[in-house]
Amino acid sequence: MNQDFIPQMRPFFEKEEKEELIKYLDEDGFYTEFRKTEYFEHQIAEFTGAKHAIVVNNGTVSLTLAAIALDIQPGDDVIVPNYTMIATPNSIRMIGANPIFVDVEPETLILDIDAVRTSLTAKTKAIMLVSANGRSPVAGIENFEHLSADTGIPIIEDAAQSLGSFFPDGRHIGRAGIIGSFSFSTPKIISTGQGGALITDDDHVASKLRKLKDFGREAGGTDIHPTLGYNFKFTELQACIGIAQMRKLSGRLKRKKSIWRRYWDHLSVTPVSLFQHDLNVCAPWFMDCRAPKREDLSLYLESAGIGTRIMYPPINSQPAYNKPGYYPVSREIGESGLWLPSMIQLSDQQIDYICSNINRFYNDTY
Ligand SMILES: Cc1ncc(COP(=O)(O)O)c(C=O)c1O
């Protein structure tokens, strides 16, 4: 079968985003964050059920701001999963705090709660819980909340990959921690090019976050700065795109779920093992799997015009950190984890083509 190269991911913007942007450019010239941004924040708060949503430049700085808002200091320890995008630990390194790497559950790649318990010390000042690919921990989110309540150690939820995914109790992911963080970078469920959002129900934390992202200002348009703050503001241009994307969110989530379902049905006869998702509550962002002979499979698929991406290596072994430690699950994912093509615009016919090539690879090589 001859067809164009199928990338692992490609952003998906349509005419609605363009129209929203052009309309704004014709009507207003403020550009920096204002009414469109407020409306985008309102959409996020409404969709997630959070009291406050605050948008910022990206989903890394959002985590840094969350840590500052919770008074994390240089030298403090913060628990992070050893399987995550490197932004999670880097976000707190930026303020001189130490990421403490903890291994993850094999089923979900979310922090292993027992390993978290044994890693807590007097220096632990927060837990960054990453809901890998929209999943919830097998250990139960309520047990993380109990742990936080018992120890007084706050949870920051890095829900960068989880817009549109919910805990089994119906709360949107990102709402179990005191602060939840999302990313709108190009591969995400919705995108504003770059962008991030913080959600919280805590008025005091929300007010701190708003000041932190705007030079410590009490309110817009004044130059009195009662507290330290920086410039991590959004733009109206991003907000226009975000507003149009949010209007299409339910369709985008539906497509992600049907892509996963089709892969699941086709791949059950192959040695590839997709991570499980409960589609009633979870919208997988990337189609992640364990693939024996991963490198060979990836090359084979590439020669058939199919892009894949190696999943995150264990953070402790990244040259940027290079720390010893025993992390069997994240190490194993570093050897076998693979992302299959996952873009919203992927057609059923392309999925069938990808799966038949995966099937052929294992039939030929096993
Ligand atoms: C789990 C996780 N955290 C944080 C980030 C960083 O988000 P951003 O690229 O918007 O800075 C990402 C981005 O992929 C992510 O997957």
Describe the structure.
- The chain is an alpha/beta fold and 366 residues long.
- The chain has 2 domains: 15-247, Type I PLP-dependent aspartate aminotransferase-like (Major domain) (Aspartate Aminotransferase, domain 2), CATH 3.40.640; 250-365, Aspartate Aminotransferase, domain 1 (Alpha-Beta Complex), CATH 3.90.1150.10.
- It has 12 helices and 11 strands.
- It has helices spanning 15-27, 35-48, 61-69, 87-93, 113-119, 141-151, 203-212, 236-247, 249-267, 294-303, 328-336, 348-365; strands spanning 52-56, 77-81, 98-102, 124-130, 155-158, 179-183, 196-200, 273-274, 287-290, 309-310, 337-340.
- The strands form 2 sheets. A 7-stranded mixed beta sheet has the order 1-7-6-5-4-2-3, sandwiched between helices. It has a 4-stranded antiparallel beta sheet with strand order 8-9-11-10.
- Strand 2 (77-81), helix 4 (87-93) and strand 3 (98-102) form a beta-alpha-beta unit.
- Helix 3 (61-69) crosses helix 7 (203-212).
- It binds pyridoxal-5'-phosphate.
